[in-house]
Each structure stands twice: as C-alpha cells, then as structure tokens.
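[stage:ingest] chain + small molecule (adenosine monophosphate)
[stage:ingest] validated
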Amino acid sequence: MAQRVQGTEDLYGSYMRAWQHMNDVAREVFGTYGFNMIETPAIEQVATFVHGIGESTDVVRKEMFRVFSGALVESLLAKGSESGLKPKQRLALRPEGTAGVVRAAVQNNFVPQGGAPVKLWYAGPMFRGERPQKGRLRQFHQVGVEWLGASDPAADAECIIMLMTFFERLGFNPESLRLVINSMGDAACRPAYREKVRSFILDHKDQMCDDCLERAELNPLRAFDCKNDHCREVMKDAPLAPNNLCEECASHYAQVKRYLDEAGVRYVEDPTLVRGLDYYTRTVFEVEVEGAGVGAIGGGGRYDGLMELEGGKPTPGLGFAVGFERIALALQAQGKELGGDDPSCVYVACTPDVRPSVFGAALALRKAGVRTETDSQGRSLKSQFKQADKLGARLCVVLGTDEVAAGMATLRDMATHEQVQVPLADLAQAVIERLA
Ligand code: AMP
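[stage:predict] done
[stage:export] tokens:
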C-alpha cells in the first residue's frame, strides 16, 4: 500500500471542515480590518527565502525542501554539484508565507512610494523538513497576514488585537491564551546589541553547547532559544534587547504597549523572545495556550527591512502567522471541536420501479440549493432509510409507484417521523419551507 510521507496529514471529514472554518473566521475577522486575500505559489526561488528569512536561520539552512525537476536531478548527479545552477533553477517549497507575499508585493508594485498601505491575508500549506512530532509537521497549514506600508505603532497593536480576536472567535477560552511580546530593535540599534550578545556567548564559551558557539558567529540572538538547559541558564545573564534599544525603538515599543493597555489586552513581556526568522525588527510577539503542550500557536512581528531585502523600496511592514494543526490540537485539549458534523441533507428514497423519478427530483432539489443524497447502489427501501439516518438527513423524500403515478411525493421528517404528501412539481419549495 502506498504510504503518506512522514510528518504530513490527509485533511478530510471534520478535520477538513475545521480548516475551512478557520479560513471563514479569518476572512470575517481580517475583513473587518480591511485585509484582502492573496495566494502566492507554494514554490519560489530559493533566493526569495534566503533574502527574506536569512541565510543563517535553521529554516533556510536545514529545513527548506529544495525542488528539482527530474531532468535537473540527472544533470546534477552527472556534475556532482549544483554550483552551476541559475537562480531560477534553485527552487524550494515555501517554509513560511511572508517572504513570498513580500516578493509578490515588490514584483507587482503593491505599495508604490508614497502610496497607501496594503493589507493582505493568506491561507495554505507550508513545508519544513523537521523531525515530525506532536504539533510539528513537515507539511502544515498556516493562516497569516501581511500589512505593508504601515509604520505607526498603532498598527502593531491593531495587528495583535486582530490576532487575539481571531483566536477568541475560533473558540479559545481567552483566559487560556498567553500573549508574549518583545522589541528586537532595528537597523540602528540591533547590530550593536547582536555584538554584545556575541561577546557574552564567547565570554562564556566553556559553558555553552557547540550549537550556541556556532550561533555566536551566525545569529547570536538564537542562543536565547537553545533547547539545552545549561545554555538557557547561562543566557539568563545575557544582555537583553529592551535594555539596548535606540530612542526611536524604545518609544515605538512604549507606544505599542500603551495601545494594548488602552484596549485592555493582557500580555507578558519576555525580553528573550527573539523568534526564529532574521527579518523581524522592533515588535515581535507569540501566542501560547496554557496547558495545551503544543508550543506557540501563532506569532509574528514587524519587519521594516524586508521589502528592501526582497529588492523593493524601503517600506515598513508587519504581520503574523498561525498554525492550523496546533490550533486544532489546543482547542481539542479545551474540549472544543473546530469542524463539527457533516452539514445536514435531504435523502430521496424510492422503490426500485420508480428509480428514474429520483433522478429528476434530486436535480430539482440541488438546483434549488438543497444538499441532496440518493441511493446509487440499487438498495432496498429499508436500507435506503438506514442510509438516510446514517447521513443525518433531516428529511426523506419517498417516491413509490402510486405516488409517482399521481404526481406526488411523501415528505418524511426523520426526527418526528411525521409524513405529508406534496405535489412533485412543488417538491423543492415544500422541502425548503420545512428545512427553514
Ligand atoms: P513561525 O513561522 O515558525 O513563527 O510559525 C508560525 C506558526 O506556524 C507557529 O506558531 C505554529 O503554530 C505553526 N508552525 C510552525 N512550524 C510548524 C510545524 N513544523 N508544524 C506545525 N505547525 C507549525
């Protein structure tokens, strides 16, 4: 039997409905803030991710699925190296959504200089070559937003409030959500801060793991995220980002917090929150669910340098992404179901001799927008009723020899077992009235 790839899932039944429901809630909540949907390709040039996410990040160095056509693989195997490949031949499956959306914004000039900001949201599969475990997949689904052209700290606060509203609308108990925020500084103050952290790690190199020593050179702030308990203990004394902000960044952060306070949003400041991707500047945030044990269900922040990194004009921006699978797990842990049952339907049953009449009756009902099921296996009337029950049909239309001859149909309410006769010509109307 063919097998699914490890770390991937099939979405069907209530799980599929859960994903669709999450998209519906996203469209509704983000729509009230003026966001429109965008869909970018799942496959992009590697350069898009290297520029945006950062060459030194785990996502780009270790987790990106690279894509080669069959012919290209053959030529690579023959040459033994990919060094001769052109940029347009170096492709990858997207590990996240932001870099692709920003690439699209640059390429299509969504935010002309001096133009109004653009607000976009997306939903779709992302791919990371991670070791699969609970809440950590190789193909997972994200819903995210990107707000390009906005520099105002009110935008940071609005983005966070929109995210928390989205979680509440999905059914999370607001008390269980833990919003963590931090400011990582910008091009003016971050380089000096990075250097301080690098020196700190090197001053403590005897106590840090090999990964952190490598991080010291590549991306020192990632040492705050080290899984090694000892490194975490040492990093407790490392210089903290909020104490090393320039005046503009400190003022921006203070205003974001003031807006959040004004809106009554509960948050925790974590001066070690750095997030895994290089593009963040100033505000960063993550949301966890207490007691769910699935890690962060969403996160994001400001990325004022990203449009430039992708080849555009300097344009501020911010956004977030949430993970569908972790949200579903966390809601389940709170005893909540995101998907729900199959939508109810109407079943058209018949005795075998009038089967052709079912065809027309079902057509008329579907044309009127009624979800309609019929038998397609030549089952007996009794087993058609059983099937109707199993499908959760609210009404059953029964066609028998005498009824069809008289141009009538019997309508049976599956809950009350009440039956009425209606003219076949008015069937759709009668069904719609009863369903209402
Ligand atoms: P990130 O881009 O890493 O900040 O991810 C944003 C959100 O996507 C996270 O908070 C998770 O909910 C989800 N996510 C990230 N990586 C994975 C993964 N490998 N499997 C499942 N969900 C993920």
